[in-house]
Design brief:
alpha+beta, Cytochrome Bc1 Complex, Chain A, domain 1, 4 domains, seven-stranded mixed sheet, six-stranded mixed sheet, 33 helices, Insulinase family protein, Pept_M16_N
Length: about 1000
């Protein structure tokens, strides 16, 4: 049963490959639609669904399952979130673990080939065809290869009638009969190699070393989904076809379709398009993935196995060890899942204790424990530690001491109850939001359940199972499960360090073998804290102005309400009924980046990391978490060009307390030093990683360079950070919290009168605000001058990696909102052209991108930016291609088909996302003080979808015609040195 407690914890990034968007060329397509499927499904299983066989988990009746005689299994379901969309998933039960040694990378390569050409779709027709139907590349049309599966994804908006029928037919043809020709291999292998090249560097080496150590002797240790250069270059049409025939079979296929359609029709479509699929030969058994095993002579009480020290200059120190157990196919029943829930509580308690110790200052920046069943290869408990200094032994000892205490002594019932309250909120909220679950998420849940060989459960079942076993969460039971989490057949570890000679495998082994005494000092306090015990913000004050804004026609939908308080605070309220259990509170205040002096630049990022954790009033970070126990809160903070933003995702019963938290932060901020020092340590440890590859250098320096080297946009280095202090942090951020206007936006599921009363007690009770100095509001940076010869930066990574950027200044400010939307369309057109040019140029670049940004709070700072990662020898080709595209768009504009390929996905996206309150919040946020945002809301759809070729040509001429672009190249150090740069 796929319980949310596990779904919320992602598998280690070191072990799985992220979803990979696929390449495509532009080409027209003319495929005749087929008749709509009208036959009733013959092989549906309403009474004996295949995914529930052998389990006592109650069947989720909203699903319809079926199994065809050829072995294809399916799951279909009606879902109208978002309206009109159908989400399709085709899962092949084969990933990189199914590859022979000479086939490494074939599973992922076939992903690309499937989208290249297939039975009904000619070369490079697939992506343009689905774009014209409204699907966007990467978001809606994608594929994933993991060690154990390959999954093809299509989220098709407005998939009704013949469009749905034809799309299922085309998608089935892609999977069943891709054209695995030599010509298609010649086109796709270089693109896959470009993708591999761009993923090369320290991160890949660390991931590979981690797999090799933790899964030593198992297939997973040597099977990376991206594959090997040698096997990919040696791939032949016959070899790839053999892999496809071996694993792309009906008995290895699960089809999932969820959408705004009759489930019987969806089932009939699956049967129609997959029922006649026959695979030659007998099924091939899965290879033996192997099991973890202890080395000969290991101590059964402490079975330490493989250890390794990996030296990667510039990388922060980290230590990972894993308690490994064999993976077994489980009987996925309710009792098994009860055990998993107790495991989760045990794990949460240990993690809270580790975090408490890290916050107090000590030998490690962070540490965590996670139990996962990884790739059907191991049931493992992973322990990760980030030492603060070269004394990694002390960090390891301190973490092991916290774990040793948890193994030795039961937790308190208060600790258990605290974690249970968190889970109860999560599971109850799942039930509240059941009817608004997105169809794509439901489809993914089925795929994930099949991958881990488990069933699925309705949210009501999960909540009922959890609440019915509350008496089983005793200190004794949690203690038993804690001990089990840290027992295994072998313990393996890897230490990553930037310094040669700092450690060796023998030393790491000795440290793992060393006995540690339990440390119970970090047992987290669980004494309850109540909002009722907290001091008031001030005397409650009612709003002085209140009324509808005229955003919506209130005949059909409640309008957005505007409030103003005597102290200057303004509010937007929009209660909605279509998203039960979801409400968002957003607070915009102050002057944002403009309000900092240039010499205060280092405090910008420190504030991003440390401001929330530094506490408020009498509450430090630990006390704030106690206060939030059993509630649905969040406290996100971000810095924008012209404002600061607090944001919390909450629910109706907790909106008032969420408002108190935000108002209290402004009224009585606390200035604990430990979060500031911890943030500094984190920034110091991570700074060296930026220089390890082109992407890191861009993340470090691009915003600083594009803002004319303004220090407020710089990533602080060690010298800058050494000048900062907790006292300086307080001085800078106390000014930021006290200045500038406040706008509070509450959108979603809440009770209007209760929230107005809560606002009166919180933001209405604040004293009047200081104004931001006018000279600071004019403190906006310029844009660098155009340059024929690019700025050159270097990285110390792989010699075949480089990056190139070209940017053109545009504008800013809410008065230009319609133009900013049209520039987004222009940038997407540009991106499509650049992708064709660079990806198809022998794999010159896997991921070229063009985007447009237009800040609304300030009158400048916008830009269109083109970026690509590519080999050094292709940098000039990128600049040439970008120049040619810019000049052509300025002279001739785009074609109608190019606009259609951008317009339709944008139209469908807008239709989908406007059903949720967060879309309208994003559009209206800031409009309490800025009427332009309301004024131009009515033209939003037109601006994106009715833009003409001539309008786009004029915009291109305006921004590309008089400015040749600012250029940046990031080259490997040796390449730059050889060129004398």
């Amino acid at each position: 049963m796929t319980f949310s407690s596990r779904a919320l914890r992602a598998l280690s990034a070191l072990l799985l490959l992220a979803p990979i968007p696929l390449a495509a060329q532009q080409a027209p397509i003319a495929v005749a639609p087929v008749a709509s499927a009208s036959a009733q499904p013959r092989y549906a299983q309403p009474d004996d669904p295949w995914i529930y066989r052998g389990t006592d988990i109650p069947v989720d009746k909203e699903w319809l399952f079926g199994e065809l005689p050829n072995g294809v299994r399916y799951a279909v379901r009606r879902n109208g979130v978002p309206p009109g969309q159908v989400s399709m998933r085709i899962r092949i039960d084969a990933g990189s673990l199914h590859e022979n040694a000479s086939e490494q990378g074939f599973a992922h390569l076939i992903e690309h080939l499937v989208f290249r050409e297939s039975k009904y779709l000619k070369n490079a027709e697939a992506i343009p065809h689905f774009q014209r139907l409204g699907a966007s590349l990467g978001n809606d049309t994608n594929a994933i290869t993991s060690p154990t599966q390959t999954v093809y994804q299509l989220d098709l908006p407005n998939a009704q009638g013949p469009v749905l029928d034809e799309s299922v037919r085309l998608f089935a043809g892609m999977i069943r009969e891709p054209k695995l020709s030599a010509a298609n291999l010649a086109a796709e292998v270089p693109i896959v190699l470009a993708e591999r090249r761009e993923r090369n560097g320290p991160e890949r080496r660390i991931a590979e070393a981690t797999r090799e150590v933790l899964f030593a002797g198992q297939r997973l240790s040597e099977r990376n989904p991206i594959g090997q250069v040698e096997t990919l270059q040696a791939a032949t049409s016959q070899a790839v076809q053999a892999f496809h025939q071996r694993w792309y079979r009906p008995d290895k296929t699960v089809v999932v379709i969820v959408g705004d359609a009759d489930p019987m029709r969806l089932a009939a479509l699956v049967e129609e398009n997959f029922g006649d699929w026959q695979a030659p030969g007998e099924p091939t058994p899965d290879p033996d993935f192997g099991v973890p095993a202890a080395p000969a002579g290991a101590d059964p009480a402490n079975p330490v196995g493989e250890t390794r020290v990996l030296v990667e200059p510039g990388q922060p120190r980290s230590l990972t060890y894993a308690v490994m157990r064999p993976w077994h196919q489980v009987t996925d029943n309710i009792e098994y899942n009860r055990g998993l829930l107790i495991d989760s509580i045990a794990e949460a308690i240990v993690n809270r204790r580790l975090e408490t110790a890290a916050r107090a200052g000590g030998s490690y920046l962070y540490a965590g424990v996670e139990n996962e069943k990884t790739s059907r290869s191991a049931d493992a408990t992973y322990v990760s530690v980030a030492p603060l200094t070269s004394d990694w032994q002390a960090a390891l000892t301190d973490v092991r001491a916290v774990i040793a205490d948890a193994i030795a002594m039961p937790p308190s019932q208060a600790e258990i109850d605290r974690e249970l309250s968190e889970y109860d909120v999560i599971f109850a909220n799942m039930v509240e939001q059941r009817r608004i679950q997105a169809g794509s998420k439901l489809a993914d849940d089925i795929v994930n359940a099949v991958d881990i060989r488990e069933a699925v459960a309705a949210p009501e079942t999960i909540l009922e199972v959890f609440r019915s076993m509350r008496d089983r969460f005793t200190p004794e039971a949690v203690h038993e499960h804690t001990r089990d989490l840290f027992e295994g057949v072998v313990v393996r570890s890897l230490y990553l360090t930037p310094e040669t000679g700092e450690a060796d495998a023998a030393g790491l082994r000795n440290a793992m073998l060393a006995k540690v005494d339990g440390n119970g000092n970090e047992r987290a306090s669980a004494e309850a804290i109540s909002f009722a015990d907290l001091p008031p913000i001030g005397e409650p004050v009612a709003p002085s102005v209140r009324g509808p804004l005229g955003v919506f026609d209130s005949t059909y939908i409640d309008d957005v309400e505007g409030l103003a308080f005597p102290n200057g605070v303004r509010v937007l309220l929009w209660p909605t009924a279509n998203e039960p259990g979801r409400a968002t509170v957003r607070v915009r205040f102050g002057g944002g980046l403009q309000a900092f002096k240039p010499e205060e630049g280092a405090y910008v990022q420190l504030g991003q990391l440390a401001l929330v954790g530094s506490g408020q009033g009498s509450l430090g970070q630990n006390e704030l978490e106690l206060l939030a126990a059993g509630r649905k809160f969040s406290f996100d903070f971000r810095i924008e060009e012209g404002s600061f933003v607090f944001e919390g995702l909450t629910r109706a019963e907790d909106v008032a307390d969420q408002l108190y938290l935000f108002a209290s932060k402004l009224a009585s901020p606390r200035w604990d030093a430990a979060p500031v020092e911890r943030a500094k340590a984190s920034m110091l440890l991570s700074y060296g990683t930026y220089g390890g590859n082109p992407n890191g250098v861009i993340n470090r320096d691009l915003e600083w360079l594009l803002n004319d080297r303004d220090p407020r946009y710089a990533t602080p280095d060690a010298a800058m950070l050494q000048t900062t202090t907790p006292e300086g942090f307080k001085e800078v951020w106390s000014r930021m919290l006290a200045q500038g206007p406040i706008e509070v936006d509450v959108f979603g599921d809440f009770k209007r009168d209760e929230v107005v009363e809560a606002l009166s007690r919180t933001f209405g009770a604040l004293p009047p605000r200081e104004a931001v100095a006018p000279e600071m509001l004019a403190n906006t940076p310029g844009f660098p001058a155009a340059n024929k010869d690019p700025v050159i930066l270097t990285h110390r990574g792989e010699p075949d990696q480089a990056a190139a950027v070209i940017a053109w200044p545009t504008g800013g400010g809410s008065a230009g909102l319609p133009e900013s939307r049209k520039l987004e369309v222009l940038a997407e057109l540009f991106s499509n052209r650049l992708m064709d040019e660079m990806r198809e140029r022998a794999g010159a670049s896997y991921s070229p991108y063009v985007g447009s940004s237009w800040p609304l709070d300030v009158p400048s700072g916008g830009r269109i930016l083109a970026l690509a990662q590519l080999p050094p020898e292709q940098v000039q080709a990128f600049f040439n291609a970008a120049d040619e595209i810019a000049k052509d768009l300025a002279a001739n504009g785009p074609t109608a088909d190019e606009i259609a390929r951008v317009k339709e996905p944008k139209l469908q996206l807008l239709n989908r996302i406007q059903t949720g309150h967060t879309f309208w919040l994003s559009q209206l946020s800031g409009s309490a003080f800025d009427p332009n945002r309301r004024q131009y809301l009515g033209s939003l759809m037109r601006d994106y979808t009715e833009v003409t070729p001539e309008e786009l040509r004029a915009l291109a001429a305006r921004y590309f015609g008089n400015y040749s672009g600012w250029r940046l190249a990031v080259l490997p150090e040796k390449e730059a040195s050889a060129a004398g740069r």
